[in-house]
Automatic annotation (TrEMBL):
The protein's name: GPI ethanolamine phosphate transferase 3, catalytic subunit
Database matches in Pfam families: Phosphodiest
Molecular-function GO terms, alphabetical: mannose-ethanolamine phosphotransferase activity
InterPro entries registered for this protein in UniProt: Alkaline_phosphatase_core_sf (IPR017850), Phosphodiest/P_Trfase (IPR002591), PIG-O_N (IPR037675), PIGO/GPI13 (IPR039524)
Species of the source: Zosterops lateralis melanops
GO biological process: GPI anchor biosynthetic process
Taxonomic lineage: Eukaryota, Metazoa, Chordata, Craniata, Vertebrata
Amino acid sequence: LNIPSRWPVVLFLAWVCFLFFAGIGLFMSGFLLTRIELASSSSCSDPLVPPPWERQSLPPGSCWAPQRFSKAVLVIIDALHFEFARFDPAKTSPLPYENKLGVLHQLATAQPRHARLYRFRADPPTATMQRIKGLTTGSLPTFIDVGSNFASYAIQEDNLLAQLVQNGRRVVFMGDDTWEGLFPKKFFRSYFFPSFNVKDLHTVDDGILQHLYPTVDSGEWDVLIAHFLGVDHCGHKHGPDHPEMAKKLTQMNEMLRSLVDHLGNDTLLLVAGDHGMTETGDHGGDSEKEVNAALFVYSRTPLFGSGPPEEPETIPQVNLVPTVALLLGVPIPYSNIGEVMADMFAGDGDTVSAALQQLSVYHINAKQVDRFLQSYSLVAQDLPAEQLQHLQELFSSAVEEHTQLLTQVQGTMVPPELEPRLGSLISRFQHYLREARAVCTQSWARFHPPRMVGGCILIASSCLLCYMASELAMSSQSFCHSCLLYPLFWGPVGAAVLWLVHVFTQEGLDLLLVSSWAAAVSQLGFFWHWWGQHFKRAPWLGLAFPMGILFFRCGAMFSDSFVVAEARVTPFLLASLVMLLVGKLHWDGRLTVPEGPKQQLLGFSSYRREIWYLLCLVAMLLVCVRLSSFFHQCREEIPQCRPSVFLSPLASLRNTRAKNLFYLLCVALLAGLVYAVQSWLRHYGNLNSSGPLVLFVRWGFPLVVLCIACYWAVASSADDSLGKLQELVQVAVVVFPRAVYGLASVGLLLLLCNPMTVFAKDTRESAGSIVTPYLGVPGSEVDFLHVIPQIYKRMQESQKSWLERGSCRATIAAYGLGSVYSAALVIALTLLGFLLMLLHSERLSFAFLLLFVEAFVLLHIHTCARAEGTRLAPCQPFSVPWYAVISWLLAASQFFYSTGHQPIFPAIHWNAAFVGFHLDHNTNLLPAVLVGANTFASHILFAVGCPLLLLWPFVCEMSNSQRKKLKKESREELQEVEEHMMEMRLRESPEEFSTALLRLGLKYLFVLGAQLLACVCAAMILRRHLMVWKVFAPKFLFESLGFVVSSICLLLGISLVMRVDCAVSSWFSQLQLR
């Protein structure tokens, strides 16, 4: 490859990736729009207070309703599931998370009118930031907000804290530093502690306990918020059913017991969980265990008019906002859609006065919600008009009846004929508020259909462009150069036109819209020029079975059942594709030899011997597929599923013998991987030189394995160490991963600087010796079998040259030149594999072993199928068939699930963000990279290794030629051996080599784009489906991120091949100078 023909390939593929990225961004902007946040805020002067009955007036310091408490303490115990707070005295042997908060049960039973426990139902998504927004604004956060859970932005919408500060209340906060980003400069005093390190169970809680009681006793506060994180982090690290959870809940119990003793009579205590947790300690979705939190309310003065119900009442979390606001005498936030908890407004009076007080707060609440709905409908215009009209009728009739009823009330004396109307009117207000919340919940996602359709069309046209370009590139040598005109010229032209339109219309410039417009215009230029061109179309029969498998996979994206079961569907499709490939080869007669009398007598002998090797490879693939299913993660839609035991870290094992056995197996696996890679490189002569990269492979790889083994050792025993040893362990769990990061970075840097792994022996011929003895590193017998033909050939050439020219010439023996491209990719993949295994739990290294073995088997199946396919009908040696690309991507999807992942937020391995980092991160970029690498590990490895599909058949030429040579010693066979140049055949046709890389990249992007298009269409068509936010939207997001990661890694893999080619060109230039 020369320079002009090399880099246009990468640039063209980068342009195609940009087209897809623009389509994804445009669709996301229409599908995942955040809810419109109104800038309005409530104030004491708002005319929402109902007409008072006689002798009712607002005391000083109250807004809208009489203030019942002057102080409030809100204790948020992150991930406090309802079952953690419930106490069942009948249980004699409770689980670690049961019956630990005994103080709540004691207060509720001893003082039933002072304390009460509720089921506190969270609205999904159940990520902490979204729950804080719900607990302070009384509104419902949208789905896309979950993506900014660890990059919180300030809440601009009217909220409870803003109302408290606006009305002169002193708010003190201590705990989770997420609040600092959401409410900057809102606190009278604050004590923030880092929250992201889910392995740290004690820093936040101990910091709160250090300041909690002195702050309460000082009295310099009106509202105190304490957000504890230990229970949530314990769930993430150990799960709820673990002794550490019992310790943490016991600590919370003692904290609450002491806190109650420090409270005054004018203080309201609220203990709440922002969300629940699953059996594995995760959260983020909408399963029953995730949304089922607990709320406990306590006051030293009587709060409730009657005792608690037999079964705790279930209330939505948004109901807390209007309740606390009116109890503290501040206005309800403007955008609240919650319903007041009326039983907390009953007071000490009789039933009639309690009902009148409840009607008053219901009236205020209903007016506030009606005002919000009217304002929101004018701005957003996405709430159904019929439902809004129905809600308006419900509201008007209830308010009118309430006004009429108050005119007939004499003081607190209600005529007997009016008493039944009180309960009925309360029910009507409740009905209105719950209907209003339901309408908002159903219609909250404000879609932008034009952008959604535009993004879908852009992705579909990008897929069509990939297919057309992959076929056109085969028939046009200068295709890549001419195609670069379209993104370089038409794209900026389209962007400039749109910019001019915005200038003349005086509208804001949307960068995403400009990018999408530029992408679309550059695509149109491409199609305009190439649409009428004739190109060689592949036979439809040959495309039928691989494209059929791809069609079935894409069609499954439209079924929530198939998406849920995709971890089993994808391996089945991969196995089916390989079996169909073998069947097609048999159908085409590629696996049989011409029949003779003897073959007809013994039918089985009519098959070629190579078929048994191919069948063994297929059997190995099926075994790998089957074994990979043991490393699965579960979704809550499959209740009978149990997560794989291999997903949990070794530290969670209580059996020391089992822990040590698994540890030794994991370390042996790493050592085996290094041995296999070094053996492969030595076999092909790529370990014979003394260059920096080869030295790193020899000595750096074992050192990386040693560091990973040491990290696993200290991480698995970190909880068991004590005293000074604990401090040493805390240092070690940071040092060893960073050493791995450093060594891997050095290896990748060496690979980029000098990727040549070739040993060249340059000798001067003399009369006494034709070939000097080999002084390199001794190799195996196979190496010498490969070298002998080369020596024989050089001897012939040198002798012929000496006879013709009468002079002596230099002879060159190059070791590893025939596999120099593949060697660089194998080294890169090994280094990436080490990094990715470090980010996963120890026992998932078994899954990575299966990944490498299955990739190796797929490459050999592709090579065998190609060799058998070209036996009767020669095909282009530089073309990678569609079935190879599709099977490669199916394997990538398969191991996404087999490394313990699922396309749902609760299944994300957040622990990966702290491998090598003990304290909190200063930026969100690094943890995002680490978590992303953990999540899309299989996408990274298969995308970087994609060029091996082109290179591997050339690498395998040597072994085939050696087998032929050992069987026949004729001169013709020797001549055939000499003609096998392995990967150097690619340099004989540089234009075809660059075209082959371009076509391979385009095919890879086409298959990725087809899967992405299916997810996009499913999310768009089924956007009102019951399971859209639970199944289709997360699947779309994960597929989009997977596409971005895969496409970038594909460009990196192809760029690495280009870099090796540059180094090979320089190497040949230096030889010519000699």
